[in-house]
Each structure stands twice: as C-alpha cells, then as structure tokens.
Amino acid sequence: MRGRLRKRDEIRNIARAVLDTYGKLDPKLQHIEPTPLPDKGSIFAIVEDLLEVVYPGYYGAKHLEPSNIEYHIGDLLDSIYSRLSQEIYRSVRPECERPDDPCNHCHEVAEDQTLALLTRIPDLRRQLSEDVQAGYDGDPAAKSTDEIIFAYPAIYTISVFRIAHELNRNGVPLLPRIMTEYAHSKTGIDIHPGAKIGRAFFIDHGTGVVIGETTIIGDRVKIYQGVTIGALSFSKDAEGQIVRGEKRHPTIENDVVIYSGATILGGDTVIGEGAVVGGNVWLTRSVPPHTRVVISEPELVIGRK
User: Fold this and answer.
1) What is the 3-state secondary structure (H, E, C) of 21-48?
2) CA dihedral in degrees (35, 39, 45, 49; nearest 10)?
C-alpha cells in the first residue's frame, strides 16, 4: 500500500513538472483552446470517401448500379461536406483574430472552401483519368487500368495529392499536408501539396520518391522509384532565419523521364522538355531540352575469390 501511495505521489509530481512547462516553451507544444485542432482520423476517413467519389466501385461500396449511383454519390458528398467543413473550420480558426467562439466568419470560410473543393471533383476526375492512362501506357507489366487504380501506389498518392493541392492552392492550412503525409505513410511516396504537377503524370514503382513544395512539373512526365526533386539550400535573412516562400525546387518541363535514384536539386534548375535523366544522376544545374544525362559506367573488376 505504501509503495502504491509513493508511486501516486511521484506521478503527481511528474504531472506538475509537465504542467510547469506549459506556456514556457517557444514554440509551444500544446493547443489548449476552445476550438480543437483538426482530427487526423476524421481527415483520413474523408480522404478515403473522396477517393470513393472519384473512383466509385474501386473504393468503398463495390455493388453500385446505374439505379443507385446518383443516390450513393449524393449521400456521400453530403457526409463529406459536413465533416470536411468542420475540419477546415478547426484548421482556420487558430489563425483568426476574431474573439467570438464559435466564429461565424471561420464557419463561412470553411463552408466556402469545402464547396470549392467539391466543385473541382469533375475536373480532378479528368486529370486523374489521364494519370491512370499514363500509368497503363507507361508500364508493360500492367494488365488493365483496373490494376493501375486498384494496385499501384503512385495512383493512390497522386490522387490524394491532387485533392490536397486544391486545398493548398486556396490557402487552407494544415489539412493539405496532413492528407499528403497520410498518403506518404501508406505508399512511401512524398509529394508536397504545394507542388505544381501537370497532366498525365506517372510514378513507376514509387517507393522513396520525394517531390518538394515549390517543384513545377509539366505534362506527360514519368519518374521512377527513389527520385528526389528537392532543394539545394535555404536562403536566410539577416537574423539567420530561413526565408520562406522562395522557389527552392526544380522545374521539370514536358515529356521528361527521370530514372530511379536520380537527385535533382535547386530552384534555378530546369530540366528541359523531352530530356532523359538517367539512374543515380546527381543534378544541381539545368539540362537543355531533348538531351540525355547519364553517369559514367563504373569499371567492373572481376577476379577469383
């Protein structure tokens, strides 16, 4: 009994020590406000439901027919609207200086942003149809577009990216990065929602691909596993703080192919139209259009044991 009481006292002391750090750290590590931050579990569920709207019959309910598809999609969109507007409200509320809680202004912003995203779904489906076709056309191992949608991690990640990019483009905080990191955790493909990616984009295999925030990718670009499109360095101000908002990542023009393990860095780096970047190439400077970049073949040494 005494041992238990002593442990309880120790736990209370630990709790007081933890509480003593609240409000004393910069940056703070707690959010103790009337409005909670977005719920990750809810956002993950919304992502899956959005994918069901984009790919009905592939995600979620499988037994869909012309007689029930309109009701099913309409009901799903109603549910998404309600839940997504709540999560957007939670994401924009901390940045609002209005004292009222709940904040009518933030509710209006959340509802408008949710409608803006849902309105874009037809266009997103057109874009993703081209991405799926690019995957099928670019991979002789693919037996059908069904296989591309069902089984290819790149299509999953590109789909989530295109949804998150719309929110990011409209200035919604937190949610876009939560969405793309969710896809990253499932597939190993890391695409920042701020990147700009053109039509008919495909990533073959995909594991280990990284595409940075200010990357610009044109149409009909194909990349392979392990490719990094990243920043070369970070500018700093007079106080030594990182300057945000600058273009730090490369531009990849139309019809470029980048093979596995290539690393392309720097905001001024431009890979010209139709260029091919070979495997394991390290690039920090621009490449003219319609050129091929490869590393020298290493010398093989074969000898007896």
Assistant:
1) HCCCCCCCCCCCCCCCCCCHHHHHHHHH
2) 40
Q: Which residue has the higher pLDDT, 201 or 304?
A: 201
- The answer to whether residues 293 and 287 touch, using CB atoms and an 8 Å cutoff, is yes
Parallel, antiparallel or unpaired: strands 228-230 and 216-217: unpaired
Query: CA torsion angle for 288, 292, 296, 297 (degrees, to 10)?
Result: 170
The DSSP H or E segment spanning 20 is helix 2-21
Crossing angle of the two packed helices 69-92 and 104-119, in degrees rounded to 10: 140
CB atoms within 10 A of CB 33: 10
pTM of the model as a whole: 0.92
pLDDT tens-place string over residues 134-185: 999 999 999 999 999 999 999 999 999 999 999 999 999 999 999 999 999 9
Q: How far apart are CA 294 and CA 279, in angstroms?
A: 7
The pLDDT tens digits for 5-27 are 788 889 999 999 999 999 888 88
Of 190, 272, 260, nearest to 223 by C-alpha is 260
DSSP-assigned states of every residue in 111-171: HHHHHHHHHTHHHHHHHHHHHHHHHHHH-TT---HHHHHHH-HHHHHHHHHHHHHHHHHTT
Helix (H) or strand (E) holding 229: strand 228-230
pLDDT in tens, 233-248: 777 777 777 778 789 9
DSSP label of 103: -
pLDDT for 170: 97
What residue has token string 């910069």? Answer: 26
